[in-house]
Each structure stands twice: as C-alpha cells, then as structure tokens.
UniProtKB/TrEMBL annotation:
The chain crosses the membrane at residues 20-38. The keyword Lyase does not apply. It comes from Streptomyces xanthii. It is an enzyme of class 3 (hydrolase). Its EC number is 3.5.1.28. The keyword Protein transport does not apply. This is N-acetylmuramoyl-L-alanine amidase. Residues 76-205 form the N-acetylmuramoyl-L-alanine amidase domain.
Length: 229
C-alpha cells in the first residue's frame, strides 16, 4: 500500500512540472496542455478513482481458470474496490450443501446472500461476483466491504468433504487475492466465517485444516511471486 501511494505522488509531481511549462507557453496552448494533462491523469488513475466504473466485460473473471456463473444482482452490491474500500480480508466458508445447490441459491434473488467464489470438491472454481463488488457473505457490513468470500462445497461435520483438490485450488485462489491486494498471508487476514464479529455461523468448522491450508496458501503465494519476478 505504502509503495503504491508514493508512486502515485511521484507521478503527480512530474505532471505538475509539465503543466507549469504549458502555462509559460500561454494562451490557447495552455488550455490544450491542461486538457491533455487531465485526460492523461484520468487514464493513469482510473483504477483508484471511486465512482468511476472500471471497464467490465461480461464473463470476465479475476482468477484465471475460474468459471463465471453470475449471482443474482440482489445478493451483492456494485462497488469499485479497492478504490472505494480497501480489501484486506479473505473469508473462508463451507456451503452446508452441494456445489450445484449453492450456485442455485446464489442465483436466487430472494436468497439475499452470495460469495465471490465457490470451490467444488474436485477443485473446480466458480466466480459469481467480481472482486470489485461487495458480496453479501459475511453477515457483517464492514467485513463484506473489506473482504473476498470463498465458499467450499461440503458440510462442517464431514471432514472427508475437504479434499486435497479443494484445498489446493482454494489455496491458489486465496494466494492470488492476497497478491492482488497486498494482503498479508496470515490468520489475522485469512479468517473463517466463524471469526467474523457478530456472526452465529460456525463454518468452516473444526475439521477445516487451517495449518495445512495456510501452508498451501503460503507456498502458492511464493510461487506466484517467483513467477512475477
Ligand atoms: Zn459462511
């Protein structure tokens, strides 16, 4: 975050020098110069200006390999994250039902809730809400605004539901989210629904192997970093 902030300030100072030079030219040239500057500023900053809709293509996903399955619009709120809300949490859920059943209720406008992602037992991932937007998954307005929600197919009292493929796929997904928004890979920032203040939900439950999951997230996070470097 700090790095991004300082980079932004430097860019703006550079622009100011240009604009002063444009002013010296005077007259019509000044107006043109300022106009170009403003447009250039906008083009560079669009992703962090709240209230400006980022370009969205139908079917576009934030996690490569995820399948886009749109949730009903009533189950989320359009936003412009991370410009309007900082994303600093990932919330882990368990569906208490099948993958298909979960997709069905998230597509139902009367359900009133949905998560960004649903991970199937075989590791397949559906994205149902863009990370830009606020999904109603945590039952807590503050946490909804600051988090990305991931559902996992299964039941909290059935440890056999949490397969290797599911842990692996979910860990890659969470690692990518942490990379995109600079979220630290730790249990303060990657939490269970049960840990959201005020919740009466117990998921992901006692059989979710946090130690294993965090190790996988960390490894995937490191791999992604190495690939980028
Ligand atoms: Zn939950």
């Amino acid at each position: 975050m700090g790095e991004r902030g300082s980079g932004k300030a430097k860019g703006r100072d550079g622009d100011r020098v240009v604009s002063r030079r444009a002013l010296i030219v005077g007259g019509a040239a000044t107006a043109v110069g300022v106009g170009l500057l403003a447009r250039g500023d906008l083009a560079r900053m669009w992703w962090q200006v709240p209230g400006i809709d980022k370009p969205r293509k139908p079917g576009e996903v934030d996690f490569k390999g995820a399948e886009w399955v749109a949730a009903a619009a009533a189950n989320w709120r359009r936003a412009d994250r991370p410009a309007d809300y900082t994303i600093d949490r990932v919330v882990i859920h368990v569906t208490q039902g099948s993958y298909q059943g979960t997709l069905r209720v998230f597509k139902d406008p009367w359900h009133g809730a949905a998560a960004h992602y649903v991970v199937r037992k075989d590791g397949h991932i559906a994205q149902m809400i863009r990370e830009l937007d606020v999904a109603f998954h945590a039952g807590n307005r503050d946490y909804n605004q600051r988090s990305v929600g991931i559902e996992h197919e299964g039941f909290v009292d059935r440890p056999q539901d949490f397969t290797d493929a599911m842990y692996e796929a979910s860990a890659r997904l969470t690692a990518g989210i942490c990379r995109r928004y600079g979220i630290p890979v730790d249990r303060e920032h990657i939490v269970g629904h049960v840990e959201v203040p005020g919740t009466d939900h117990t998921d992901p439950g006692p059989h979710w192997d946090w130690k294993r999951y965090m190790r996988l997230v960390w490894a995937a996070h490191e791999r992604a970093g190495a690939a980028k470097a």
